[in-house]
Amino acid sequence: MPETPPAEVEVVEHIAEGRDIFTLRLRFTDPAQRTNWRFAPGQFDMLYLPGVGEVPISIASDVDERESLAHTVRAVGRVTRALAQLRPGDRLGLRGPFGQGWPLDAAGGRDLLVITGGLGCAPAVSVIRHVMRRRSHYGRLTILQGVRHSDDLLWRAQYEAWAQQPDTRVLLAADVAGPGWPGHQGLVTELLDRLPGGCAGALAMICGPEPMMTAVARALEQHGVAAEDIWLSLERNMHCGVGHCGHCQLGPLFVCRDGPVLPWPTLRPLLGIRGL
Ligand SMILES: Cc1cc2nc3c(=O)[nH]c(=O)nc-3n(C[C@H](O)[C@H](O)[C@H](O)COP(=O)(O)OP(=O)(O)OC[C@H]3O[C@@H](n4cnc5c(N)ncnc54)[C@H](O)[C@@H]3O)c2cc1C
Ligand code: FES
Fold it and tell me: To which H or E segment does residue 78 belong?
């Protein structure tokens, strides 16, 4: 059972993004909640379908957008497949926002790297939009996105639009590239070797599969990014979302409460240990 009663939200839009991936735009049915609800980039919600279950999903909207909230989901199991069936007008429960988001205070005035793999782009969209709307508060923004196959890239037009923004560069990598792929064929870590001017001194935000994030964090250190400036967004099985049940424990941490965004020096000794 949820720890606190979920708020009721209504699906206003279901966007098919790719194979098994969709975005739900949700709106609180209570107008007061719609007005007062706030979140920080990198936080997540628990989406609750009565009789089916509840899952943690990152918030993929712009923090400044008041009317609806976006969640981009891959249908992998019981709850996410049921979420995939929802259409405009359907209602569900939402608890949140939960967790610690991206380190925006530490990022002020700095060059930023946002490095994502696969659907890891979803939790990073809100921070990219936040930076875009406050462009003068931050230095150069470099966005690197890796996918297994070039056909898996979501939001291609959005990446192209971001690449046109001032002091912003976007580099894409695909392990396997189809015809017309504008990016690199290979791993996202290889893009770091190709960055004109390098990335030393930047603050990095990483989201993707854990082996990818670990490889990127190690490569960044070799490229002169300080360990304390490298931040990763983790996924773990969750139940309560608020640090009570222990489902998401990682060593001394509860990922729901202390994360999901955590600094590399904290994670380095914990990631890759069997059983943690
Ligand atoms: C903080 C946080 C943020 C998250 N943000 C997002 C998000 O923005 N979008 C999103 O799609 N997911 C996100 N997830 C992952 C999402 O919560 C899980 O995919 C979901 O809980 C699976 O529930 P289920 O009932 O559908 O699948 P289950 O029935 O629990 O699992 C079915 C099968 O899928 C496998 N599986 C479970 N999770 C994943 C996964 N992530 N990828 C591949 N296989 C998996 C399981 O091992 C199992 O074999 C996030 C997780 C966390 C902790
Ligand atoms: S999900 Fe319950 S402690 Fe984190």
Answer: helix 78-84
Task: Give the count of alpha carbons within 13 A of 55, CB side only.
Answer: 20
Task: Looking at the CA of residue 56, tell me the nearest atom of ligand 1.
Answer: 17
Question: Which tens digit of pLDDT belongs to each residue from 73-115?
Answer: 999 999 999 999 999 999 999 999 999 999 999 999 999 999 9
- State pLDDT tens for residues 46-69: 999 999 999 999 999 989 888 899
Q: Which two tokens stand for residue 177?
A: 């590239």
Q: Which pairing describes strands 44-49 and 253-254: parallel, antiparallel, or unpaired?
A: unpaired
> Considering the entire predicted model, what is its pTM?
0.93
Residue with the smallest CA separation from ligand 1 atom 51 is 235
Going by alpha carbons, the residue nearest to atom 49 of ligand 1 is 77
Contact predicate 230/207, CB 8 Å: no
Return the sign of the alpha-carbon dihedral for residues 12, 99, 113, 213.
negative
Report residue 170 as tokens: 């976007």
Q: Is 55 in the pocket of ligand 2 (CB under 6 A)?
A: no
Residues lining ligand 1, CB < 6 A?
44, 53, 55-58, 72-74, 76-80, 119, 122-123, 235-236, 238, 260
